[in-house]
DNA sequence: TCGATGCTTCGTCTAACATCGAACTATGAA
DNA sequence: TTCATAGTTCGATGTTAGACGAAGCATCGA
């Protein structure tokens, strides 16, 4: 009677709080060790080991052995997309995690969403790019304008033509759970975030599993000069 | 420490097989009664009632009272999108439901994906539209060409300009779990499917919860004339 | 070779939750 | 009113799977 993919199996994998915590940590885009993930999820290593093997046979994560460490990462950007989608549904329904800590405001201001910038600043950047007509957005489908290509090359030394990828779009709208609006994903979004890091405008929070992005003082100024309210 | 949306809660809702069955049935886009959903999931009405209330407080489905019936539907196209995403992940990992029935081949050939055409024919249509240069697809972002607009108006009497929607894109690539390739979603995909039905080219299978789409003999011919292999 | 560290496997315990029978409410038909 | 149908609530039951302690491999450094 019932045919088709077993979505319950995959959803059940994500449905356990401990596993969801680990997956959320991996949404940071970094590969993390089993111990780090156990710590993130607040469980013992042996419990984490069990969870990780389940996630792996489920195809959600991949493993890479390196010495006596085992590094885990999300197996695919598609996985990240589904996780963000779930986060969007949860945020809309108002089901937020209860214990929001001191990092929460920082997380809302700027954070990594897999490999690109999210949070208040991420949304602000996409808004600004649109208002400056550097991007053309026709509801979820986004294109870089000719002017936008020049801007990327000049202001950020990003060769957008070189960012073509067989599986990922150049620009993509990604729903932001904290702002409930879109920010910029895709290879361009990732390249911009990488450039911010290279230029020392911003850095990932040191704590493993943290998705907070801290802007330096000068980085914040330069960001504002390019994407600030004034240029809206 | 951990902030953000509670994705585990939402995923756990989908993670129960009975609830996943109901949600999959609702992916058909029709509103179904509690009894029908119970039957679909193979559980008793009282169990279904419990599940349905959980899905409702979780924001995944909505309820509409009509006499002594209660009709349930997915609360949002976004929910459908996440469910399809989960199906994609499950299909890729090879986790298919075991008991595949006689309907399975029909389901793979043509089925409803929320409100648009999926399966072999759905993928074939998107391929053909692309090869005829009626759509321009730059990886996941799809646009209708000027020629495509004329085609829609002439061949299917669809005014694509009238399909603009504040929340949904006109064209969207949706991953097809049976073909593991994309088919056409978005308001245009929905409008085309609706037109197929109006023209009696195809009809939804009568059984409640079924997602099978049956093409009529003449409908199949006309579909092939527009999107068939020959026109590739 | 030895110990320390990272991770896994095994066994057991426990708590959560899906399930159903029975009883109750609400709507519609006669 | 009375009966039938649709659906819910309650309580009892049973299974599942998540948790950790203890022990076992594997890898690194000395």
Low-confidence stretches of chain A: 98-102
As a percent range, the share of helical residues of chain A equals 40-55%
Kindly state the number of beta strands of chain A: 11
> Counting H and I runs of at least 4 residues, what is the number of helices of chain A?
10
Order of helices and strands of chain A: HHEHHEEHHEEHEEHEEHEEH
Q: Tell me the number of structural domains of chain A.
A: 2
Biggest interface: chains and residue counts?
A: A-B, 65 and 65 residues
Label the structural class of chain A: alpha+beta
Beta-strand content of chain A: 15-25%
Mean pLDDT of chain A: 83
Instruction: Please give the largest β-sheet of chain A.
Output: 3 strands, antiparallel
Radius of gyration of chain A: 18 Å
Would you write up a description of this structure?
- Two copies of one chain form a homodimer.
- The relative contact order of chain A is 0.12.
- Helix content of chain A is about 45%, strand content about 20%.
- The first copy, chain A, has ten helices and eleven strands.
- Chain A is α+β, with helices and mostly antiparallel strands.
- The first copy, chain A, is globular and about 50 Å long.
- Chain A folds into two domains: about 5-75, Winged helix-like DNA-binding domain superfamily/Winged helix DNA-binding domain (Arc Repressor Mutant, subunit A), CATH 1.10.10; about 85-230, no CATH class.
- The longest helix of chain A is centred in the middle third of the chain and has 16 residues, at about 75-90.
- In chain A, helix 2 crosses helix 3 (about 35-40).
- In chain A, the strands form five sheets. Chain A has a three-stranded antiparallel β-sheet with strand order 1-3-2. A two-stranded antiparallel sheet of chain A has the order 4-5.
- The first copy, chain A, has helices at about 5-15, 15-25, 35-40, 45-55, 75-90, 105-110, 120-130, 145-155, 185-200, 215-225, and strands spanning about 30-35, 60-65, 70-75, 110-115, 115-120, 135-140, 140-145, 170-175, 180-185, 200-205, 215.
- The structure holds a DNA duplex (30 and 30 nucleotides).
